[in-house]
Amino acid sequence: MPSAEELKHRIEAAIPGARAEVEDYTGGGDHFEVRVVSAAFDSLSRIERHRLIYEIFREEIGGPIHALSLRTETPSEAESTSQPTAR
Amino acid sequence: MSSNEGSEIRQAIAKAIEDNEVILFMKGTPDAPACGFSARTVAALQAVGASFAAVDVLPDPRIRQELSGLSNWPTIPQLFVKGELIGGCDIVTEMYESGELAPALGLSLQS
């Protein structure tokens, strides 16, 4: 079963300029939550962005990887979502 | 699975997508979802008051296999609107949170 670390490296190797955060959110090694930030997402729809990630793990999804929850953002989208909301 | 059986299933899936304006391929049923991702997707659709057809992929593994071959999307659930793949749980819930889901379904935003 792939580790969170391995998923991170494979995403960052496959997508230009990507910064990936990967969490094994059940500890069982097959449910991963993935956040990827890359300028390569700029002109892509959500579906196209997610397909890029799924393509990397095509062979493992539905097998060793049971669940891959994805969040894909451009650097500017990531910045706006991480801004603390004004109180 | 003979290629004939596969293509029969794929044709039935394609027809269901064509015949239903909004259709969700999921694990379980809207009343009894069999996985968290399917449950969250159903909840988002119900929250915007969408009426939708639902297909349980669990009874026959060939459904998921042929569906993913058709949609080029490896996970379940999968939501289609007017014949087009909208996405899975992540995308549907993201669209719900950003207010894009209701308009994408041709619904006005619930006040």
Keywords:
heterodimer, A: 87 residues, alpha+beta, GMP Synthetase, Chain A, domain 3, 34% helix, globular, B: 111 residues, Glutaredoxin, 4-stranded mixed β-sheet, 4 strands
Structural summary, described in words:
The complex is a heterodimer of chains A (87) and B (111). With 87 residues, chain A is an alpha+beta fold. Chain A has one domain (4-80): GMP Synthetase, Chain A, domain 3. Helix content of chain A is 34%, strand content 23%. Chain A has 3 helices and 3 strands. Chain A has a 3-stranded mixed beta sheet with strand order 1-2-3. The longest helix of chain A is centred in the first third of the chain and has 11 residues, at 4-14. Chain A is globular. Chain B is an alpha+beta fold and 111 residues long. Chain B has 5 helices and 4 strands; from the N terminus they run αβαβαββαα. The termini of chain B are far apart.
TL;DR of this structure?
Chain A has helices spanning 4-14, 46-56, 75-82; strands at residues 19-24, 31-37, 67-73. Chain A is of the alpha+beta class and 87 residues long.
Per-chain topology:
The complex is a heterodimer of chains A (87) and B (111).
Chain A lengths: L3 H11 L4 E6 L6 E7 L8 H11 L10 E7 L1 H8 L5
Parallel strand pairs in A: 2-3
Antiparallel strand pairs in A: 1-2
Chain B lengths: L2 H17 L2 E5 L9 H12 L5 E4 L4 H11 L6 E4 L2 E4 L1 H10 L2 H4 L7
Parallel strand pairs in B: 1-2
Antiparallel strand pairs in B: 1-3, 3-4
